[in-house]
TrEMBL record:
It comes from Durusdinium trenchii. Pfam families: peroxidase. Belongs to the peroxidase family. Keywords: Heme, Iron, Metal-binding, Oxidoreductase, Peroxidase. This is Plant heme peroxidase family profile domain-containing protein. Residues 83-331 form the Plant heme peroxidase family profile domain. It comes from the Eukaryota.
Length: 362
């Protein structure tokens, strides 16, 4: 268990120092997002199994730019060989949510990696025109749908998510940016100025929210890595519910809003959740935590079946611990434990695992 704790600790520091949280979240989501619940065999069902590091998957159009994220993780994989790629990718994403001010996610580790690229799901294997069933941000939609809301439901129902899960997960766009060189959905490219040639395609300069020097970190510290691109929120290195403030803020041409984002407040069923998350950060964090944890385990094969390391994390005051404990039946139970004394190492990392019997949890 020790290497998981150490790896997690170093990832938190690395992601914070390098301001690379958004791309880590996108990498993990794209590894999971080709899961197909209709397929019962592993690894054919896809999901969080590390296949994204291999060719051909890493070169699918939807994954443009994600080699950078895989390269960020290579030194961690070298140092902590016992942590599988599938675990490392999901751990980095959970750390990214945490360091940007989001919830501490109840994660479970012990995922088995696919052997090699032969396990990558084919581009059209999920019934979409490309990208092994990852969503498109605008028409033409690869699943054949005419409307973005129908497209979102087609794609996310295949993974097992309902409307609430779809809206909650879309809130991950509170972080990060889109680039001309990657998805091509915006004109803004890499860097402050518009640059063309040698792999740079940007035909517009960085927005006021993505140019060098603008403050976007949740702790107000300076710096954010590479300038450029266009973001959904003005504080795109802060995980909060500002993505859902779209209807409450005045129109801003410098922020990104794609047809699949608009579907979340234009479709009446989605809008119920969109409004709820706009009104309450707590409601968003709660729904996001559940959906993200589920996403991180889609299609994963755990060895042993219950996982090697289930995190018990400290949140808020020193004495209150929010925990997700997995029962022997496989169910995840969320609970809040108030303890007399928490045993920690000098750096404050919680080291004592509390094991409760399922009958002790309500
Ligand atoms: C709902 C359907 C979704 C669509 C159509 C979509 C589309 C996109 C697009 C076009 C980009 C820009 C990529 C680029 O040019 O670099 C992007 C970035 C991103 N996506 Fe999504 N996405 C969806 C769902 C999700 C989900 C479920 C998550 C995570 C739970 C997620 C997390 C992110 C993050 C964090 C970025 C920013 C990456 C960066 O700044 O490097 N997305 N998405």
């Amino acid at each position: 268990m020790e290497h998981y704790v150490k790896c997690r600790e170093e990832l938190l520091k690395f992601i914070d120092e390098n301001n690379c949280a958004p791309i880590m979240v996108r990498l993990a989501w794209h590894d999971s997002g080709n899961f197909d619940k209709r397929i019962s065999s592993w690894p054919e069902c896809g999901g969080a199994n590390g296949s994204i590091i291999h060719e051909p998957e890493i070169s699918y159009g939807a994954n443009a730019g994600l080699t950078k994220a895989v390269n960020f993780l290579k030194p961690f994989k070298q140092k902590y060989a016992a942590v599988s790629w599938a675990d490392l990718i999901q751990m980095a994403s959970a750390c990214a949510i945490q360091v940007t001010g989001g919830p501490i996610l109840p994660m479970k580790y012990g995922r088995v990696d696919v052997k090699d690229g032969s396990a990558c799901p084919g581009r059209t294997s999920r019934g979409t025109a490309d990208n092994a069933g990852l969503p498109d941000a605008m028409a033409p939609f690869g699943c054949g749908a005419k409307q973005p809301a129908t497209h979102l439901r087609n794609i996310f129902h295949r993974m097992g998510f309902d409307d609430e899960g779809i809206v909650a997960l879309s809130g991950a766009h509170t972080l990060g940016r889109a680039f001309q060189e990657r998805s091509g959905v915006v004109e803004n490219g890499y860097g402050d100025a518009k640059v063309q040639g040698m792999g740079f395609f940007g035909t517009a300069e960085a927005s006021p929210y993505t140019k060098s020097g603008c403050p976007v970190r949740h702790d107000g510290k300076a710096g954010f890595g590479m300038p450029g691109g266009k973001a959904w929120t003005s504080n795109w290195l802060t995980f909060d519910n500002s993505y859902f403030q779209f209807l409450k803020r005045s129109k801003d041409e410098n922020l990104l809003w794609l047809p699949t984002d608009a579907a979340l407040h234009e479709d009446p069923q989605f809008k119920v959740y969109f409004d709820r998350f706009a009104d309450s950060k707590d409601a968003f964090f709660d729904a996001y935590s559940k959906a993200h944890t589920k996403l991180s385990e889609l299609g994963s094969k755990f060895e042993p079946a219950g996982g090697t390391f289930n995190e018990v994390v400290e949140q808020g005051g020193k004495r209150t611990v929010e925990a997700a404990l997995r029962c022997k039946t496989g169910e995840l139970n969320y609970c809040r434990l108030t303890m007399e004394k928490v045993t920690t190492e000098p750096n404050g990392m919680l080291t004592q695992m509390l094991l409760l019997m399922p009958q002790d949890l309500d």
